Every structure is written in structure tokens, then in C-alpha cells.
Amino acid sequence: MFRKLEERVHPIPLKERIDQALYRLGTQKEKLEHMSSRLQQRDKEMFQRCIGAQLSKDNAHAALYANECAEIRKMAHITLSSELALERVVLRLQTIEEFGDIMAQIAPVIGVVRETRGRIAGVIPEVATELGEVNNMLSDMSLETGEVQDQDLDLTASSSEAKKVLEESNIIASQQIKERFPELPLPEPRQTTNAPVTQVTQARIPVAIASGGEEDQVEPLEDRVLGYIKSHNGELNMNSASTDLAVSPEDVRRSLQKLRDDGKIVMD
């Protein structure tokens, strides 16, 4: 059912008000572009700090910087998708101004501006405030165009069209975020380092075998010690010898002393 809206008398022509709306939308779009650039620069700084912390094995600060990058990228996604949505709005208004029927095509534009305003309010409040005023301007224009059909149908179509524009803007924004921002490094798993095993190198005792030592009769342990010395090229490791000969280091030491006293070996 059609109903006649009371015509409002406005001192500024409709076309001029569309130009004003386009100018104000363009200004807000530039603010969003500037914010996107600042967020990208901030993310670059945090990303470099994250890499530096990882190289220094400072996992706590690496995680801190990585989380900050994630928050920055959430804001960047909202800002970029809002920027793209406003770009669509500007193009649509330019088309409406030149060719279209304002009443038939301005409703989806109002829906996109309204939704974008709500989305950006938590990131750039001043842009959201300006978009609210532009939204009021566009709403006034829609009421000044004469006869309209049932408003419920118009609102449904407007909401559907606005949702489609915003979804497309989100998809494009997600793609551009991946292109503009490097992938965050994965945190390194904490490695448990075992205490290094300290190996104590026993000093080798150089032993010279005296001539004629092989023919003289010696005690069994001394004979074994003498044979051990020969098999190790005239060197003896006290601990190794005691282990290999299955005797105490003291027994090895006494045998060496006796061999030296008997002239079988020479030690420094």
C-alpha cells in the first residue's frame, strides 16, 4: 500500500546535499586509510621486537609482542573492511547522483553506513560520530523523495544488501591483511636441558720399561701391571688400570712403586 509522506522543505537542494555527503564520506575514508597505515607501521615494530626476542631466547617477551601484533591486526582488519565498505558507499552515491532513483537505491547505502559506524566505533570514535551524522543526512534524503512502498519490505531489502556489501568487504580485507602483514612466528617449545656430564680426564703417567725387566721374576699383580703398561705404549691411567685389572688404585700404586724399586720401570 502506498502512502504519501509529508514533503519537507529544505533550503539546500538534494544534489548539493549528496555532494556534501560524498565529501564527508571521502574525508572519513582518508582517516581510515591513515589509521591503516599507522597500524601497519606499529605491527612492523612489534613484529621486529618479537623476532629479536625469539633470537635472544626470550620466550616471555616474544609471546608478549606476538599477542600485541594479534590485537593490532584485529584493529587493522576492522579499519580496512570499514574503509572498503565506505568506498562502496561512495561509488554507489556517485552512481545514484548521476543516473539513479534516489529512493530506490539509497536505502542499502544507509544500511552500510549505519553498520560501518557501529563497527568502527570502538577503534576510531570520531569517525563513527561523523558517519552517524552522514547517516542522518541520507535518512532525511530518503524521506524527501515522495511516495514509498511498505517500509518493512524496504528495510528487509536494505538490510540484505548492506549485509552483502559488508561481507564482501570483510573477505577482501582478510585477503589484504594477509598480504600486508607477515605471518607471526610460532613460539619455540621450551626445551629442557640436561646438566652436562663432566668427564674428568685422568692424567696418564708415562712409564719407561727398564731393559731386562721381562726376564726377572715378579709377583703376579706386578707382572699384570707391567703387562698393562706394555700394552698401553708405556702409559698408565690409574683409574683405568685399577678397573681393567680389578684391583684398587692403591694396589696399582704399590705395584708401580715396587716395579720402580726393582728397576723394572722408570717413572718421573
- What is the rounded distance between the termini? 122 Å
What is the CA-atom radius of gyration, in angstroms? 44 Å
Shape summary: rod-shaped
How much of the sequence lies in strands comes to under 5%
Domain count: 2
Chain-averaged pLDDT: 76
Order of strands, widest sheet: 2-1-3
Number of strands: 3
Please give the count of helices: 8
Tell me the major beta sheet: 3 strands, antiparallel
Give unreliable regions as ranges.
1-9, 146-157, 197-201, 211-218
Q: What string gives the helices and strands in order? A: HHHHHEHEHHE
What does the model show?
With 268 residues, the protein is mostly helical. It has 2 domains: 14-180; 204-267, Orthogonal Bundle (Arc Repressor Mutant, subunit A), CATH 1.10.10. Helix content is 68%, strand content 4%. It is built from 8 helices and 3 strands. A 3-stranded antiparallel β-sheet has the order 2-1-3. The N and C termini lie far apart (122 Å). Residues 1-9, 146-157, 197-201 and 211-218 have low confidence and may be disordered.
Question: Features of this protein?
Answer:
single chain, 2 domains, rod-shaped, mainly alpha, 3 strands, 3-stranded antiparallel β-sheet, disordered N terminus, 268 residues
